[in-house]
Design goal:
The protein has 16 helices and no strands.
Length: 333
C-alpha cells in the first residue's frame, strides 16, 4: 500500500506551511501590521496584564488598580487610534502597490525596484512601505499617552469604584468612516511624496537587507516614546492622586526597559531558528507570487508576540512589585 499520497494539507509539516488559511492570515498581517500589533495588545491588556497585576503580592491595592486601569486604557486607546489612523494609511499603501505608476515617479520606481522583476517584490520597496505602515504607531504615540492618562480616572471610577469625584462621560456612537475613493487617493498621494524622496529611497536601499527587523525596531522606538510621554503627562495630571503617580510612572518605565531588553534578547536567540523556518517556508511556497507578503507577515508576527508576551504576560508581576518598592524607598529617603 502506498502512503506517500497522504494529504499534505492535513498530515505533515509541509502541508501546514502552505495551508491556505495560514497564507491568507500572513498576507493580512503584512497588509495590516500595525492593526495586528494593536489587536494583540488590546487582548493582552484587557486580560493577561490586569490578571498578572492583581496577582502581585505585597503591593497596595490602589496601586494595583491604577496599574490595571493604565493597562486597560492603553489597550483600548491604542486600538482606537489604529482604527482611526493606521487603517486608512494601510489602505493607501495598498493602493500605491496596485497603481504605482500613478503615484510614483519613473525614476523612483526604477531606483526602488532595483534588479527585481516587479516593484512590489523589491526588498527596498517593501521596507519603505512597511516603514510607512508601522510608522503610524510611532506618530500616534504622543496622543495615545495623553488619552490614556485622561481615561485612567474614568476607569478607576467606573470599574474599580474608588471615587465618585470624576464626571462620567457620554459615549458617542461610533460612526463608520469610509476611506474609499478620493480619501484613499489623497492619502496615497501624500505618502507617495515620501516614497519619491531620493534621500528616503537611498535610506531603504542601504538597509534593505535588514527588512526583517523593521517591525522590532519600530516597536521599540514607539514604546520608548510612549513611556516618555506617559511619564511627563502622569506627573502633570490633576486627576491622578499625587501619592500614586510615582509608582505608576516607575511601573511603566521598568516594564518598558525590561520588555525591550528581554524582547531583543529572545528575538535574537530564536532568529536562527526563525531563519531556518523561513527558508523551508520559502522553498515550499517558492512558486507563490505572494511569498514576499507571507515573509513580511512572519517578520511582523514574531516580534509582536514576543514583546506582547513579555510585556503583558510575564512582566507585570515583577514591574508592579519593583515599582512599589522603589516608590517606598524613595519616600523614606
Amino acid at each position: 500500500m502506498r502512503i506517500n499520497n497522504i494529504s499534505r494539507d492535513k498530515t505533515n509539516f509541509a502541508g501546514f506551511l502552505n495551508n491556505k488559511y495560514l497564507l491568507k492570515s500572513l498576507e493580512k498581517v503584512s497588509d495590516h501590521g500595525t492593526s495586528f500589533a494593536a489587536g494583540t495588545s488590546l487582548v493582552m491588556s484587557l486580560t493577561a496584564r490586569p490578571l498578572a497585576i492583581f496577582s502581585t503580592p505585597d503591593v497596595e491595592k490602589e496601586n494595583k488598580q491604577y496599574a490595571a486601569a493604565n493597562s486597560i486604557c492603553s489597550g483600548i486607546v491604542k486600538f482606537g487610534l489604529v482604527e482611526a489612523v493606521a487603517l486608512p494609511v494601510e489602505k493607501a499603501v495598498k493602493n500605491i502597490d496596485e497603481h504605482s505608476e500613478k503615484y510614483l515617479k519613473p525614476e523612483a520606481i526604477k531606483n526602488l525596484q532595483g534588479k527585481s522583476s516587479k516593484l512590489i517584490e523589491s526588498r527596498a520597496y517593501r521596507l519603505a512601505t512597511q516603514i510607512l505602515k508601522l510608522g503610524t504607531g510611532f506618530l500616534t504615540a504622543i496622543p495615545k499617552s495623553i488619552l490614556t492618562i485622561a481615561f485612567i480616572p474614568i476607569i478607576m471610577d467606573n470599574i474599580f469604584k474608588k471615587s465618585d469625584n470624576y464626571k462620567k462621560i457620554n459615549e458617542n456612537k461610533n460612526k463608520k468612516i469610509s476611506f474609499e475613493g478620493d480619501m484613499t487617493s489623497r492619502i496615497s498621494s501624500q505618502l507617495s511624496k515620501v516614497l519619491n524622496n531620493q534621500h528616503f529611497q537611498n535610506f531603504v536601499k542601504k538597509h534593505e537587507l535588514n527588512d526583517k527587523n523593521i517591525a522590532k525596531h519600530m516597536t521599540a522606538a514607539t514604546d520608548i516614546l510612549l513611556t516618555s510621554t506617559f511619564a511627563v503627562q502622569t506627573s502633570k495630571s490633576k486627576n491622578i492622586k499625587e501619592n500614586r503617580k510615582k509608582a505608576l510612572v516607575y511601573n511603566n518605565i521598568i516594564s518598558t526597559v525590561i520588555t525591550l531588553a528581554g524582547g531583543y534578547f529572545v528575538d535574537n536567540a530564536i532568529k536562527s531558528k526563525t531563519g531556518k523556518f523561513i527558508d523551508k517556508f520559502s522553498k515550499i511556497n517558492a512558486s507563490d507570487p505572494k511569498l514576499h507578503k507571507y515573509i513580511e507577515g512572519i517578520n511582523i508576527v514574531r516580534p509582536a508576540l514576543i514583546f506582547a508576551g513579555i510585556y503583558y504576560g510575564i512582566l507585570p508581576i515583577f514591574s508592579t512589585y519593583i515599582a512599589e518598592k522603589v516608590d517606598k524607598y524613595i519616600e523614606q529617603h
